[in-house]
């Protein structure tokens, strides 16, 4: 085609890919970039946009689709070149691409200069005043692209690359990041490929297939094509084929085209050695988000070196940057990295697990600073500045990393790294105590106890049995708790661990209290108190006075209960444990309220709430609300009592356990009381 002036009008864009799906935000970003800055200054540069993402994510499909949809906006024509920056073949030099562009624009072959600088000058002259669209696909560097940028402000250049090509920022480039498709759009692409009617009854398997494809368009298209060409195959068969991680990349490679493995291989081959090593080793990280410290531990390098290597991988679109100091592997990229040979690979899991143990310990030292721990890791950080600003911040980090920690616990146990495994388990105490993930609590401690037993560490086993027993106590499984604590006490006595024995006796008292045997509970607490006093642990002595006071209060011995609780409060104040002091304020408030001292009770609870609301524990917060409800009920304000119980129920519902049952029972009793007919007020002069 030629223009009215006789100049050729090139139409080089490839066809739009079949089943192109979604990418609305990315298309809008290209629209915005192509619009350029406001105004029509003659000095305005052509609009340059770099579409960045990993191989197979659909960068070319996006660029071509946008270009075809907007071709009419560029009457001077559309140019396309595949620069082959990441293909097994040699990358296209800029002079080769530029020569092809010049010929497409009508420059006779014999007039195309040999030198790149002369070609670029002629290209700028030829395209002056044109409205031209240029797509440079698969670029490897800014230097490869820069000569291809026209001079005319009416031109638009769309570049695709697995690298960020920061050097193009000087040309006014904008950057559009591409990630795998959202799950719903990945399902849509599969459905369109295979046929809606065929997969209508297999939606759960379609969802699984989309996930196994990593939501990469190239993999989704391959899976869809295999199913479309095999009409008798159920989707479940394809899902079964892809479950084996060792074969997944091969089976998701398009027939007769560069495989996914080759696509990732070419990106990997371009990495500098330190980043390539980090790519192989960091892929062993169990969770989605890799922190700089964990990557440093995996490769045994400094945090600064790890941060640099991770950024190189992110710039190469092999990692996705998540927040500050966090990076994420795309699923299929991780499989590729894990398949690469490396003699260090089997050493990586223990390295990462040890890093997590140290970080967990430092988090725990913020949550419960004075807690007794078996692991000696905490001794390394005594006197060190806290790693987290507040206990709530520390708990948030522990909660977010819990899936990673559990996988590391399982893997270290499977590798026979028993000492590391039981220490990881012990370090879960603060999180489970505050957040009550009961199923995970029990399962992880079964593993931890087995690890401690296997390495014949009776002290560690006793400690973990007590931690497990606490889960049973919270669930109201008092016999199971007593069984674990009895075993723990026996192990502790055999190992001469008086501290462990004291903890076991303390929890045997809690089990007896839960069964309603308050006298036996006080005996157990008293035995534990004697040991704590012998060991010189003032906080432990205070804790046992608190336990005795709470048991006596339940038994109706209010005067004796108040004496023990006030002594506990005084001792906690002496050791500077503000949180424990606030916990004692809750039963003391109940005593005040039952004595008719409502104002004093509310004051105690308000002071406790101010401390415990900052703890990050919904359990402690719900305990205060239940106490507020009891005080309101004694005051006769049933509406306020119901409000407090409803809030407590909302806090307890996600964690379950005995507290949830108790809150429901109290609320039901309150509702029943509210529904009873009220006795009429006596008339004036009558006796009530």
Automatic annotation (TrEMBL):
InterPro entries: P-loop_NTPase (IPR027417), TPR-like_helical_dom_sf (IPR011990), TPR_rpt (IPR019734)
Disordered: region residues: 669-688
Recorded superkingdom: Bacteria
Stored SUPFAM superfamilies: P-loop containing nucleoside triphosphate hydrolases, TPR-like
Gene3D superfamilies in alphabetical order: P-loop containing nucleotide triphosphate hydrolases, Tetratricopeptide repeat domain
UniProt KW keywords: TPR repeat
UniProt signal peptide: none
PROSITE patterns the record matches: TPR (PS50005)
Repeat region (TPR), residues: 502-535
Name of the protein described by the UniProt record: NTPase
Species: Amycolatopsis oliviviridis
